[in-house]
Amino acid sequence: MYSASYLEKFIKEIFTSIGTSENDAIQAAKVLISADLRGVDSHGVARLSGYVRLWEKQRLNSNPKIKIIHETPSTAVIDGDLGAGLIVAPFAMKIAIEKAKNVGSGWVAIRNSNHFGIAGYHSMLALEHDMIGFSMTNASPLVAPTFSTSKFLGTNPISIAIPAGKQPPVVIDMATTSVANGKLEVLQRKNMSMPEGWAQDSDGNPTTDAAILKKGGAMLPLGSDRIHGSHKGYCLSSWVDIFSAVLSGANYGPWVPPFVAYIDPIKESVGDGIGHFVGAWRVDAFRKTDEFKSHMDNWIEKFRSATPAKGEEKVLIPGDPEREITKERLKNGINLLPAVVADLKELGKKYNIIFSDN
Amino acid sequence: MYSASYLEKFIKEIFTSIGTSENDAIQAAKVLISADLRGVDSHGVARLSGYVRLWEKQRLNSNPKIKIIHETPSTAVIDGDLGAGLIVAPFAMKIAIEKAKNVGSGWVAIRNSNHFGIAGYHSMLALEHDMIGFSMTNASPLVAPTFSTSKFLGTNPISIAIPAGKQPPVVIDMATTSVANGKLEVLQRKNMSMPEGWAQDSDGNPTTDAAILKKGGAMLPLGSDRIHGSHKGYCLSSWVDIFSAVLSGANYGPWVPPFVAYIDPIKESVGDGIGHFVGAWRVDAFRKTDEFKSHMDNWIEKFRSATPAKGEEKVLIPGDPEREITKERLKNGINLLPAVVADLKELGKKYNIIFSDN
Hints:
Two copies of one chain form a homodimer.
Chain A: H1 4-17, H2 22-37, H3 48-56, E1 67-72, E2 75-83, H4 85-103, E3 105-113, H5 119-124, E4 131-137, E5 158-162, E6 170-174, H6 181-189, E7 199-200, E8 218-219, H7 230-246, E9 274-282, H8 289-304, H9 320-332, H10 338-350
Parallel strand pairs in A: 2-3
Antiparallel strand pairs in A: 1-2, 3-9, 4-5, 4-9, 5-6, 7-8
């Protein structure tokens, strides 16, 4: 078991070792560790060496000079200078929050960035300002549009964080696929099959083979198949792709560069890096903050009191599962898989930073 | 077969007959007929008598004085004065568009409204201004949160309309359920069963009984069940509910008043009427309009060229199916079910307006 603070310090030191400024390294570490604390293991410290490998291949700039390219009172476009999204997206959120302070809402489209960790970290930055936060990003293509076998879309998540009063905030953070790619990977490692409706084979047929992505298969948009609304998941994913990249000037669709360093990006490009889109609405730009929060409490309490279906214990509100994991992991620490520990030790060795065994 | 213009004129005349101003009646007719033209028959002229019955019960104000309650440069809250959403939502969109002209984006939360027809009509109003349009609304509770049997949410649609250049716009208009309620109603009338994953029985079990809503069952959020991501559909629907009603001061969750006049609203209320949320982003608040449009064309052409799955003809982009129906219905007219024709004749008689047989 590792404490969050231990891992956070290690992440920070690795980033400074590859040339990232102290402040940016602290920021990157905060975003990565927030994923481990919220139970999204695939997006946390386990990804650290992936960022370093991208930097080694000069596909990530460890010390980006982020620039505002264009702005209006409520919008901006920024160029992330090929930095880690872990650094670029919080920078963009600060601009969005500042604009929301001034004119009620703020929107920033980001190009020339890299993987930004969990979407929820960025949207949640708005909460302490009594604002509603919004974030989305496009990602390496793994998902096929409805009726297609072409992998043209990423898991393209959407996150919305809404403050409440006595109750914790409502935090939505969801891939626009029927399931996270991490779940396929886990089953594949265990040589187990998966439920139908998560992915399709190379002809577009249903499959339970968890290794199907390696055989020309594709992940499916939320809804799984046409009859259960996969065209809606396809719509949501398209929205994320267009806002993250067409609005900002990043790569979209099949042109999005892969996050993993061992896959080379295709030569053709239609923009710079990957793209994100973030924003904030000030609550009191609509309604008195106290009034809003007390109705949010009422909304949350009502939904918590919904009748559980037969065999279910209780009804959750968005953000509950992650909050429970955070509580548990802050108390008991974070368990890393042996492969992740080995990877981090190896990474530490490169930069003379010891990664402990405990 | 009826021409769209004939039906539109009839709708307009019915609205003026119940006291709606000429301009508002024209607006309401435009919204309703746009549903018939886009193939969303459940939200078109077939609903006209429903609005009138609500007015008869004094649950709809035929001549609303819509007021701005609060505003900032990029946001506003308006009170719809219990008018039809068909009139209130376009009014709100005009404000959003005006704000976007001034500061880059505009957002309007609406309370004290009624059913606003198809969400897509409102978002599409932004297109002619080279803006991206956004609209959502809450609706009568028919949908159970994941793990629950309580009908606490409506079909709560989201619409986003994005302009392109030579290509037609990308228009997303989707309920956040796995299927539209209209599909259940059609199967029920034909005494047919439905696929699993569309609704659940009163205990929360899967069912194929298309009449299950009358027996304590509930519709399911997009994703159908937990394993296929229904918690994500529940998240999206919650987002729509909170933005439409908690942000605006309308009724939310189980307190949303029913659209059908024969079901009385519950006595307890937490706000005024139902709520919507609309907005607009100016494209050139992010990127030169021409540049954006040419990349949208490229995006659309690329997705149209995706490889079809085995047995599928082609890959569609959001908005394609509705555009095809519009083209066909503008040419050949709109076919109404005998029950709808009878209903409209009856309605016409009340106000001395003849509804023809043809």
